Every structure is written in structure tokens, then in C-alpha cells.
Amino acid sequence: MEYFHSVTLDTDRCHGCITCVKRCPTEAIRVKNGKATIIRERCIDCGECIRVCPHHAKKAVFDKLELLKEYDYNVALPAPALYGQFNNLSNIDYVLTGLLSLGFDDVFEVARAAELVSELTRQILSDPGQVRPVISTACPAIVRLIRVRFPKLIPHLLKVKAPVDVAAEIARKEAAQKTGLPPGRIGVFFIAPCPAKVTAMHQPIGMEKSELSGVLAISDIYKPLLAAMNKIEQPKPLSGCGLTGISWGYTGGEATALLRNKYLAADGMENVINILEEIEDEKLRDLDFVELGACVSGCVGGCLNIENPYIARTRVRQLRKYMPVAGSHMKDFDLVPEAYLWNAPVEYDPVMQLDQDLQAAMRKMQEIQRIEKELPGIDCSACGSPSCHAFAVDVVEETAKMSDCLLVLKNRLKDIME
Fold first, then answer.
1. pLDDT value for 109
2. For residues 56 and 13, is the Cβ–Cβ distance under 8 A?
3. What does the alpha-carbon distance between residue 348 and residue 104 come to, in Å, rounded to a whole number?
4. Is residue 75 within 8 Å of residue 105, measured between CB atoms?
5. How many CB atoms lie within 10 A of CB 13?
6. What span, in angstroms and rounded, lies between the C-alpha atoms of 55 and 43?
7. Which of 34, 178, 263, 356 is such that its CA lies 20 to 30 A from the CA of 312?
């Protein structure tokens, strides 16, 4: 299988400091010969390495505004997190009107699609036969994490398309009806807060094909958009979402929109992994819904934003003051409920298994356990692997050697000298 990744490494900037190695949730990074390397099949594009790298050696791949020139009609899909990037913003229409000034012909808020997803999720949770707790699938990094590390939880995933995918389908259909253009001549662009959304466009989860034409980074369009907004005297009345939709921009927004008390919302990869382990151990069976986000504070914490996530979250919450509860409902769109559901299976991705052959895998596991007994067990990562166990796996897989462990090397030299 060929893996697309939106997270890339700039080896010229990398100092081999192992900060990213310790923080990667799927142990996808190693440091070899003083430089980090990314194991492509393990990377879930959560952006954690981008966030923590002190030398800015990790960066995200995304599309540029120039791509709009390839289409006859362009629609912008702004994420709710975008609204939290601007100081003293009291009206979302300034942002939406500003996007038209950047070359877009129309806008469709992802927050509107989020309200549709919330409505359908409420219907799904009303089914007593539904596996519980249901795990949100809005964050593609979380879904990929479950596929790689927690395959037993795949049946718990909410089999509903993410709001951006629902928004893209509706926006393309409406634009085609409005203009008479063939769908292929219409550009639909998501303005995203994180690299995982870029990967989700190229390798969709639960869908055969994405309706997106490209993904732009909030950080990349912030300055031109701000300049355009400052020139607006009277914005166009474009917004059609309510407080339910824009609340999806931060942790807890999706869960509270379900109007249920038995829910849990958590963010940050370390916390997310702890919660998934609890669900796997069947300790959270009394919950109806679990909302998980890879980024701290939710989408406002994505590494493609420019504002502090806590400040951005506060700004989004302040915008809700004069908004209706919801501006969009499923009955407003010519779509049956099945149109919002996944149309492709999501299966276990065995990138971390030792071997496809069970006997070979057992032999490797025995060898790993033997090697671990020789290691100090302090998980210092000085060897370039994230833990002593991961180092033992690397030795068995012949991508590392025992002398890479400094403490093992020190003890061997000491024995030689004695």
C-alpha cells in the first residue's frame, strides 16, 4: 500500500534532538546518524512532531491559493477554527466576505455541515442496539490511530462522514446547479487547521473518493485574508450556521451538540491514548459518546493555525453570543441520511505487527523479550528509538544494533577494560 503524508521532514533543519521521537503516538520516528527519519506506514499525520520540534524541521504539505486558477468556479470551506484566529471579530460574515476577495466565488461553512452531522449522530445514538460508546470520527488522525493501535475499537467508530466531507459534497452539488458547470470544473477548497485533513483528502477514510479539490492552510491564507477583511465596509450576509456548528471548533463542541449527558471529550494525543485504552478495557461502557481530538483544545489547537489555542477557543465562544442554536438541518438539503454515511470499509492497518507469519512473529517476540532484559529499561531514547522496547524491535528488525544503546556500549567497554 502506498502511503500519502502531509507531514514531511527537512533534514537540513533537523538536529537529531529526539524531541519528536518521544512524542510520536505511533512510534513512527527514529533518529539515525544524527537525523530524524519517519516510518511512512506508521505516521498518522497528527502533527504532534510539527508542534514540538524546536528547530522547525517538520513541516506540513498543503495547497496554495494559486490552485484556484485551475477551476472556473471556486468554493471556500472555512473550518470553524478559522474564526478564532482574528481579534475583535464580532461577525463571521467579515471572514466569509474576505474569502470572496481572495478569489473564491462562494463559501460554504463547514460549521453548517457539522450541524447536519450532529443531527444524524443524535438519530444513531437513539438506536438501543448501537455499540457504545460511539467514538467520533471527525478527526482523521484519531481514526488512523485506532486503525493502527486499537483495531478492536473499529466497531465503535461513528460511521458518518466528517463535516468537511459533507460540506464538500453539498458545496459542489449546489455550485453545479447554480452555474451549470460540470462538477470537474468546480474547485472546492477546505481551509484547514491541521495536516491530517490534507492526508484525509488524498487518502479518505470511510469513503471511496473525496470531493475536495485542495486543502489550504489557515496559516498560509491568514495574512491576505486579514488584509482583505480590513477593507470591508459592509460584509455580505453569508453565514448560515449556528452556535452548534462553530462550537465544533474546540473540544466538547461536538459532544454537547448531541444533547446527552453521558459523553466524554478529550484532546491531546497522550490523553486520547489513555481514553482509548480505557475503552478497550471496557471501563467506559456507561458512556454514549466519546469525542477525541489529536490537538490540544480541539481544532483551534491545530498546528496550521496561527493563534494560541486557548485564545482562539475563547474568541469562538464569544462569537456564539448572538447566534441561533443551529442554522442548518438535514431537511434543508436534498440528501437522504445514507448520503452522510461511510461508503467504504475501515479496517485494521497492521503496520505494527512483527510478521505476517504467526510462527515467525512469535520467534521475533521471544527475541525481543530476550534483548529487553539486557537493556536498562529507562526509555531515554538516546539510541534514537522511542523506548527500550521499540529499540529491541529495531534490533530484531535489523534497523539498529545493540551498540546503539549507550548504556549497553558503556558496560561492554567497561567489561573489556576490566
1. 97
2. yes
3. 39
4. yes
5. 13
6. 20
7. 263
Identify any residues that bridge with 187 across adjacent strands, giving them in sequence order: 74
Per DSSP, the three-state class of 215 is strand
Report the distance separating Cα 306 and Cα 304, nearest Å.
Answer: 7
Nearest to 241 by CA among 326, 334, 333: 326
Q: Are 43 and 76 in contact (CB under 8 A)?
A: no
Tens-place pLDDT, residues 133-181 = 999 999 999 999 999 999 999 999 999 999 999 999 999 999 999 999 9
Strand partners, 267: 293
At residue 409, the pLDDT reads 77
What's the grid cell of residue 170? 453539498
Whether 161 and 288 have beta carbons less than 8 Å apart is answered as no
Equal fold, 1-61 vs 353-418: no
Q: Of 76, 114, 78, which is closest to residue 305 (Cα–Cα)?
A: 78
Identify the architecture of domain 353-418 in CATH.
Orthogonal Bundle (1.10)
DSSP, collapsed to helix, strand or coil, labels residue 150 as coil
Q: Which helix (H) or strand (E) holds 192?
A: strand 186-192
Task: Quickly count helices (H) and strands (E) in the chain.
Answer: 15, 11
Q: Which residue has the cell 466538547?
A: 252
* Burial (0-12, 13-18, 19+ Cβ within 10 Å), 208: exposed
Listed by start position, the domains of the chain span: 1-61, 65-340, 353-418
Instruction: Give the span between the Cα atoms of 319 and 144, in whole angstroms.
Output: 32
Q: Give domain 1-61's CATH architecture.
A: 2-Layer Sandwich (3.30)
pTM, two decimals, is 0.92
Q: What percent of the chain has pLDDT over 70?
A: 100
With CA atoms as reference, report the closest residue to 48 among 4, 3, 7. Answer: 7
Rounded Cα distance, 92 and 319, in Å: 8
